Amino acid sequence: MIGSHYARLDVAMNVNPSAKRVLVFGDSNTWGRVPGIFERYDPSIRWTCLVQSMLGDGFEIIEEGLRGRTLQATNPMFRDRDGSTQYGPVLASHFPLDLVVIFLGNNDAATREPEQIAQSISRYVAITERRCEELQADLPRLALVASPIIDDSALDSNDQFKGATERTEKLAEFFAIQAKAHGMAFFDASRQAVMSRVDGIHLDATEHLRLAHFLAPLIHIEATK
């Protein structure tokens, strides 16, 4: 069974009233898609749950992953996956928040160029500010993650992500520019973990753990500022 060699995590709701609340808004690699098959890794493997375990009950990691979610684009393979239209309601449903981690962009690389993808970040900043004003909530810190790079050599020749390796290799550069312009934290995971050779677009168990070790201390720092 997948994950049987990992320690089982306690996934009970965090009721610590002083916990730092961190929303992770992501795609299938936040949801925990198993490479090559339509299954989900259990909590003992998903990087978000591992980060929760590493940081303890002084933090609450809110996992909001959705397969096929884009930063701001129509996904021809799925309905209703434009993250920019979902973000406002998701954000508001989890107030109060200390940190929002935006971990998107790879699904956009099927149809958009990296500079275009990165320009969508300004929309998220504006939505965050507007929702906080509407609901009189404190403004959370924002962090932008450049995802591990798509390995299009592992894809079928007719896959929609053909050519996405080059586009996602460049995405970190443009994300860093946008993060600086908007006063966001920037976590470059593009060289910290690698996509599975099984399908080229999802993380295996080892890489979820590698990603968690990279992101946990960064999330700790940003959520406690």
Structure explained in plain terms:
It is a single chain. By secondary structure, this protein is an alpha/beta fold. The protein has 7 helices and 5 strands; from the N terminus they run βααβαβααβαβα. A 5-stranded parallel β-sheet has the order 2-1-3-4-5, sandwiched between helices. Strand 4, helix 6 and strand 5 form a beta-alpha-beta unit. The N and C termini lie far apart (40 Å). The N terminus is likely disordered.
Give me the side-by-side strand order of the main sheet. 2-1-3-4-5
Strand and helix order: EHHEHEHHEHEH
Q: Report, as a whole number of angstroms, the end-to-end distance.
A: 40 Å
Helical run tally: 7
User: What general form does the structure show?
Assistant: globular
Helix and strand content put the structural class at alpha/beta
Uncertain residue segments: 1-8
**DSSP strand count:** 5
Largest β-sheet summary: 5 strands, parallel
Q: Calculate the mean pLDDT score and round it.
A: 93
Helix content: 25-40%
Strand percentage = 5-15%
Gyration radius, rounded: 17 Å
